[in-house]
Write a structure and sequence with these properties.
The strands form ten sheets. This protein has a six-stranded mixed β-sheet with strand order 6-5-18-17-16-7. Strands 25-33-30-32-31-34 form a six-stranded mixed barrel. Strands 12-9-8-14-15 form a five-stranded parallel β-sheet. Among the domains are: 208 residues, Dimethylsulfoxide Reductase, domain 2 (3-Layer(aba) Sandwich), CATH 3.40.228.10; 117 residues, Beta Barrel (Barwin-like endoglucanases). Helix 12 runs parallel beside helix 18 and helix 21 crosses helix 23. Strand 19 and strand 20 form a beta hairpin. The protein starts with 16 loop residues before the first strand and ends in a 12-residue tail after the last strand. The chain is α/β, with parallel strands linked by helices.
Length: 765
C-alpha cells in the first residue's frame, strides 16, 4: 500500500573503500572529473559546447552555487561541481511515462538517491492518482485543471503552501510570489529558511540589511580573510580562485572549521596548467579546528584579544555604532578557561590570531551553514559582526561580511519576494507595482509548513523545484505531513525522493533547466539571477530542451494562476510572452530595480543598493550599526554523548548525489558513514568499519537510525560528522535556531552503540 514504505534513503549495500584524505584540491583530478561526468552524461561534443557557455556574458548562469563571476571572463568559467551540475541537467537519459509504467513508487523507494538521479530528465507531466502505485501521463491542460480545482475548493488560501528552491530565476520567483499573494496567502517557505535565514536575521538586526556587504574585488584588497564553517573546495570551488588571488596579494587566510578541508590547504587552478604553471598555492595560514558549537566561544576570545591589543576604529565606533560598551564588557568578563574549553582552541593560538585581526586594515568574514545551522546561529553570526565592527571593517575596500550562498539564485528569490514574513514597507511597494492588495499576515516557513502538514492544516502543497523531503529535517515526520496532504505538486527536472512520498494525489510538472533554450510567443528569452554579492545579471540557455513537452517555470506559474485564481488581477499569460514584461513589472514593484531591462543587458549586470557597502550607512532604527551582547551557549552534552553535524560529500550538491565518492576526504562507495575521532573510537574499543546505530536526543525525544559504519577521522573529540540526506531523520523538527527557526543540522546530540560487527573483509589502501 502507498505510505507503507519507508521515506528514508535506503541503506547502502556497497563496499566501503578508505584512502588517505587529499592535501590539495582541484588541479588535474578536478579537470578530469569534470570531463568524465560531462562525457558520460552528455557525450563529448555536447560537453565541450555546454561548458564553454557556463557563466559567460551571453551564456547561462551555472545552476550550482551563487559565487560571483569576474568582470573579465576566461574561456572556462566553471568549477568541477559546476561541470557536474551542468552535465546532470543536460544528460541524455530520460524518465518517460513508460519508465513510470515499469516502476512502482514502492520499487523506486528502494533505490538510492544516486540511482534515482542518474535515470535522467523527466520528459512529460505525470499524475499519481489516489490508490495508484504508478505515475501515468497527463496532459498539461488536465494537470492545471486538477491543481486549479483543488485550490479553488480550499476553504482558505492559507491551506495552500508554496515552496521555492534557490534555482528559480528572478522572473519565475517574482511571478510566483505575485500569484501566491494574489491567491491571498504568504505561505512561501523556501530553502533560505534552512540555510542562511540565520544570516539574514543576524545581519538585518546589526547592520540593517540581511545580505553580505562585499564585492569580488574586495578580496584583492583584504589583509585578512576568515573562512568559517565552510568547505569551499566542494561546495563553492570557484571561491578558491578568489582566495588564491588574495593570497598572492598578501592576504592572511584563517580557516575555522571542525574538519580540515583540502581546498583550504593547497589549491591548484586547472587552467594554470595551460600556462605551464605547475605550482600549487597554500591557502590557509591558520586552521582553527573548533569544536562543533564552539564558534561563539572562539569569537568571544578573538574579540577579547582585539580589545586588549587595540587597533580599534574609534572614530567609526563612536560615530556609527551602538552597544559597544556592553559587548566589550561581556567579552572581558568571559573567562579564558571557558573560552578554551568550549572552543577546543588553546589560548596561545587564539591570541596569535587575535593579534593578526587587531592589526588588519581590511578583514572579510565568509561563512556558511557551519554557523547558521547551530541553535545559536543568529547570535554567533552577530559575534562575527562584533569582531569586524571593532576595526570598522564594513563599507570600505577589502572588508565586510560575506555569507556564502549555496543555491544559484537563493538570494535573488528572497530579493524579489519569496518571503513568508515580508515587512509592511516591502508589501506597500509591491501593492503599488502590482495594483492589488497584499495579504499582511505572515505565512509558514519550512519548519512551520511541516508542522501544518503534520497537523492536517494543508490541502495543497506546491514545490517550485527542489527535493523537499530530502532537504528537510525529521524525515519521518515530514513524510507523514506530505502524506496528509490532498494534493502535492513538484515542478522538477530530475527524479528525486519527494516524488515518491506524496499527497493523496500527486503531480510532477517537468520544466526547462537553466541550460536550455526558452522560446516563448515573442521569441527567445533570457532570465536573471542575483549572485552572493548582490549583482543581478542575465542567464540565457542555449541547449535544445530535453523534451518538447517541457514548460518554463514562468509559463508554469502563469498557467497555474489562470487555472486557480478567481480574480486574475494580472494578464498572466501575456506576461510570459516576453519576459521583458515581467521585468517591467518588477521595476515598478521592487526597490533597486530601476531601468531593469536596460541595466541587466549590460555585460556584467548591475549591483543592487547596499547601504552598508555603498555609503557606510545602516537602515536600523537609530541609523547605526549595532554591537550585540550574548551569553555563550552550553556545549557540554554529557558522557557517551556526541555532537553530530551533517555534511555533503564531494560528489554531491545539496540533495543531488552525482556519484559515490568523497575524493578529498578519502571515502568511496558508501554514504552511511560516521566520521569519528580515533581516540573516541579507541576509548569504546571500536575500529574502522564498525557497524553502529545512531540515536539522537532532543528534550525527551529519541530518533534511531541503523546501518552506519565508523571511520576514524580528523575531527575534535566528542564530535562526529555524517552525510545528509541520510542522517536527516535524526534531526528533530523542533530543534531549530533561536529567532531564525533554522533546523540545527550542525548540532545534533547523539549516542552511538554497536549492536553487532560488520565483516571487515575490505582492505584499506
Amino acid at each position: 500500500m502507498r505510505g507503507d514504505f519507508s521515506p528514508e534513503t535506503p541503506a547502502d549495500d556497497l563496499k566501503l573503500k578508505i584512502t588517505k584524505p587529499k592535501k590539495s584540491a582541484a588541479g588535474i583530478p578536478a579537470a578530469l572529473s569534470s570531463m568524465r561526468h560531462g562525457v558520460k552524461k552528455m557525450g563529448l561534443v555536447k560537453t565541450v559546447k555546454t561548458l564553454t557557455m557556463v557563466n559567460q556574458q551571453n551564456g547561462f548562469d551555472c545552476p550550482g552555487c551563487a559565487w560571483p563571476d569576474p568582470d573579465h571572463r576566461t574561456p572556462f568559467e566553471f568549477c568541477e561541481n559546476g561541470a557536474k551540475a551542468v552535465a546532470d541537467e543536460a544528460m541524455k537519459a530520460k524518465v518517460t511515462p513508460e519508465f513510470f509504467s515499469k516502476h512502482s513508487i514502492q520499487s523506486l523507494a528502494e533505490r538510492s538517491d544516486y540511482w534515482l538521479n542518474k535515470q535522467g530528465r523527466i520528459s512529460h507531466p505525470v499524475i499519481l492518482k489516489p490508490g495508484s502505485n504508478h505515475y501515468e501521463r497527463i496532459t498539461w491542460e488536465d494537470a492545471f485543471s486538477t491543481i486549479g480545482t483543488a485550490i479553488k475548493e480550499l476553504d482558505s488560501p492559507d491551506r495552500a503552501v508554496f515552496y521555492t528552491s534557490g534555482r528559480t530565476s528572478n522572473e519565475a520567483a517574482f511571478l510566483y510570489q505575485a500569484y501566491v499573494r494574489a491567491l491571498g496567502t504568504n505561505n512561501m517557505p523556501d530553502c533560505s529558511n534552512m540555510c542562511h535565514e540565520s544570516s539574514g536575521k543576524g545581519l538585518g538586526k546589526t547592520i540593517g540589511i540581511g545580505k553580505g556587504t562585499v564585492t569580488l574585488d574586495d578580496f584583492n584588497h583584504a589583509d585578512v580573510i576568515l573562512v568559517i564553517g565552510q568547505n569551499p573546495g566542494t561546495n563553492h570551488p570557484r571561491m578558491l580562485t578568489a582566495l588564491r588571488d588574495a593570497k598572492h596579494k598578501g592576504a592572511t587566510i584563517i580557516h575555522i572549521n571542525p574538519l580540515p578541508e583540502s581546498g583550504l590547504q593547497r589549491f591548484k587552478h586547472p587552467q594554470d596548467y595551460m600556462k605551464l604553471n605547475l605550482k600549487t598555492t597554500q591557502l590557509s595560514d591558520h586552521h582553527l579546528q573548533v569544536k562543533i558549537g564552539g564558534d561563539a566561544a572562539l569569537f568571544k576570545g578573538l574579540t577579547k584579544v582585539h580589545l586588549d591589543q587595540g587597533g580599534l576604529d574609534q572614530e567609526f565606533i563612536q560615530s556609527s555604532t551602538d552597544g559597544f560598551e556592553g559587548m566589550a564588557e561581556k567579552a572581558r568578563q568571559t573567562a579564558w578557561t571557558t573560552i578554551v574549553q568550549d572552543s577546543g582552541i588553546d589560548k596561545k593560538t587564539i591570541e596569535e590570531v587575535g593579534k593578526i585581526l587587531s592589526s588588519s586594515k581590511g578583514t572579510i568574514a565568509c561563512w556558511a551553514m557551519g554557523l547558521t545551522q547551530q541553535p545559536n546561529g543568529v547570535a554567533v553570526i552577530q559575534e562575527v559582526v562584533n569582531l569586524l565592527l571593532l576595526g570598522g571593517h564594513v563599507g570600505k575596500q577589502g572588508a565586510g561580511f560575506c555569507p556564502v550562498r549555496g543555491h544559484s539564485n537563493v538570494q535573488g528569490d528572497r530579493t524579489v519576494g519569496i518571503w513568508e514574513a515580508p515587512t509592511d514597507a516591502f508589501l506597500d511597494r509591491m501593492e503599488e507595482g502590482l495594483g492589488f492588495q497584499m495579504p499582511r499576515s505572515h505565512g509558514y516557513d519550512v519548519v512551520n509548513a511541516i508542522r501544518a502538514m503534520r497537523d492536517d492544516k494543508v490541502g495543497v502543497f506546491f514545490c517550485m523545484g527542489g527535493n523537499f523531503l530530502s532537504a528537510t529535517p525529521d524525515t519521518k515526520v515530514t513524510a507523514h505531513g506530505l502524506r496528509n496532504v490532498d494534493l502535492t505538486v513538484q515542478v522538477s527536472t530530475k527524479l528525486n525522493r519527494s516524488h515518491l512520498v506524496t499527497g493523496k494525489t500527486a503531480l510532477i510538472l517537468p520544466c526547462l533547466g537553466r541550460t536550455e533554450l526558452d522560446v516563448q510567443t515573442k521569441g527567445k528569452q533570457f532570465v536573471t539571477v542575483e549572485n552572493s554579492m548582490g549583482i543581478v545579471h542575465r542567464s540565457t540557455g542555449g541547449l535544445t530542451p530535453a523534451s518538447p513537452s517541457l514548460l518554463s517555470e514562468p509559463a508554469i506559474v502563469a498557467r497555474l494562476a489562470e487555472a486557480s485564481l478567481k480574480d486574475p488581477h494580472l494578464d498572466w499569460l501575456g506576461l510570459v510572452e516576453d519576459y521583458d514584461a515581467i521585468r517591467d513589472l518588477m521595476e515598478q514593484s521592487l526597490h533597486g530595480f530601476d531601468e531593469y531591462n536596460t541595466r541587466v543587458r549590460t555585460d556584467n549586470g548591475f549591483a543592487l543598493p547596499n547601504p552598508p557597502r555603498d555609503s557606510r550607512s545602516f537602515a536600523t532604527a537609530n541609523k547605526k550599526a549595532h554591537f550585540t551582547t550574548h551569553e555563550l551557549p552550553v556545549v557540554d552534552v554529557g558522557i557517551n554523548r556526541y555532537v553530530m553535524m551533517t555534511i555533503r560529500s564531494h560528489d554531491q550538491y545539496n540533495t543531488t548525489i552525482y556519484d559515490l565518492h568523497d575524493r578529498y576526504r578519502g571515502i568511496h562507495g558508501n554514504r552511511r558513514i560516521v566520521m569519528m575521532n580515533a581516540e573516541d573510537m579507541a576509548e569504546r574499543g571500536w575500529k574502522n568499519r564498525q557497524a553502529v546505530r545512531l540515536t539522537s536526543h532532543f528534550k525527551d525525544e529519541t530518533r534511531v537510525s541503523d546501518d552506519w559504519q565508523l571511520i576514524a577521522y580528523d575531527i575534535p573529540r566528542g564530535n562526529v560528522a555524517t552525510y545528509f540526506p541520510e542522517s536527516n531523520s535524526l534531526v528533530p523538527l523542533d530543534s531549530t535556531a533561536a529567532i531564525s527557526n533554522t533546523p540545527t543540522s550542525k548540532w545534533i546530540v547523539v549516542s552511538i552503540d554497536a549492536p553487532g560487527h560488520r565483516p571487515s573483509e575490505f582492505e584499506e589502501e
